[in-house]
Design a protein that fits this description.
CATH topology of the largest domain: Rossmann fold
Shape: globular
Radius of gyration: 18 Å
Helix content: 25-40%
Number of helices: 9
Number of domains: 2
Distance between the termini: 50 Å
Order of helices and strands: EEEEEHEHEHHEHEHEHEEHH
Number of strands: 12
CATH architecture of the largest domain: 3-Layer(aba) Sandwich
CATH class of the largest domain: Alpha Beta
CATH superfamily of the largest domain: Vaccinia Virus protein VP39
């Protein structure tokens, strides 16, 4: 008998993966959590029936959300990751030698525990001595920490359930005040194909808060819709003006300095989205 997991993105679109077995499953305080072993992507973390990350394609996402913003800041030392309890973004941030402290503000302790146990290749950075784990609502943590961070990475779920507060104007304003003078933030901002109504609203909120905002694209095989978007907002540093000497050698599988630059070259259909605001 074949076992399949199916994520329904819309009423008309779904992605299915054949699974070997369910490794772990629980109902946490906030959401349904499961780790399944798939034939195509290895172990896969699911939250409320939605694919968060997998062993075999996580590097596409985590390298892009981390290294673009880290290279944009001239000397990132104090880092905040909001969400991202699987630890992948933290692992990538720690590759930068300037980093002195990384705070992971994750609302669901169950995500951290399951990732450490069942996805150790992704979560291994969480054991680093520079990492502080804060089990808390990221919106509250940001509000209570002013002028503290060089870089803030918003590694959120989709804008539903516990992640909905990370897509609001009020949250972005708090992020602005939590950043230092040359601070830079980045957020995952969904699919420009399947979330066409969301991106213009987020773009408007960020443009009304930060002096510089740039959207960039990449690809994540298990995220439906083709290209995936991230949006960087800055108090000054420009990701398109990073001097060559700032790109440090990194052990990566997707991100390169060349991809850093070309990721900001947007096709007309995405530019039309941004113009809608």
């Amino acid at each position: 008998m074949e076992l399949w997991f199916t994520e329904r993105q819309t009423s008309d679109l779904a992605i299915s993966c054949r699974i070997k077995n369910t490794i772990y499953q629980e109902r946490t305080k906030y959401q349904d959590l499961a780790v399944v072993d798939t034939y195509q992507f290895g172990r896969m973390l699911l939250l409320d029936g939605v694919i968060m990350t997998t062993e075999r394609d996580e590097f596409f996402y985590h390298e892009m959300i981390a290294h673009v913003v880290m290279h944009t800041h001239p000397h990132p030392e104090q880092i905040l990751v909001v969400g991202g309890g699987d630890g992948g973004s933290v692992r990538e941030v720690l590759k930068h030698p300037s980093v002195k402290r990384v705070v992971l503000a994750e609302i669901d302790e169950g995500v951290i525990a399951a990732s450490k146990k069942y996805l150790p290749s992704i979560a291994k950075g969480l054991e680093d001595s520079r990492v502080e784990l804060e089990i808390t609502d990221g919106t509250v943590y940001v509000r209570e920490h002013r002028n503290e961070f060089d870089v803030i990475i918003i590694d959120s779920t989709d804008p539903i359930g516990p992640g909905v507060g990370l897509f609001t104007k009020e949250f972005y304003q708090d992020v602005f005040t939590s950043l230092k003078d040359k601070g830079v933030m980045v957020a995952q901002t969904e699919s420009p194909v399947l979330d066409r109504a969301l991106i213009p609203n987020l773009w408007r909120c960020l443009k009304n808060t930060f002096p510089l905002v740039r959207l960039f694209l990449g690809t994540v095989p298990t995220y439906m819709g083709g290209p995936w978007s991230w949006t960087l907002a800055s108090k000054g540093p420009d990701p398109l003006a990073v001097p060559p000497e700032r790109f440090i050698p990194l052990q990566t599988r997707y991100y390169t300095p060349e991809i850093h630059k070309t990721a900001f070259v947007l096709p007309p259909y995405v530019l039309e989205l941004l113009a809608e605001e």
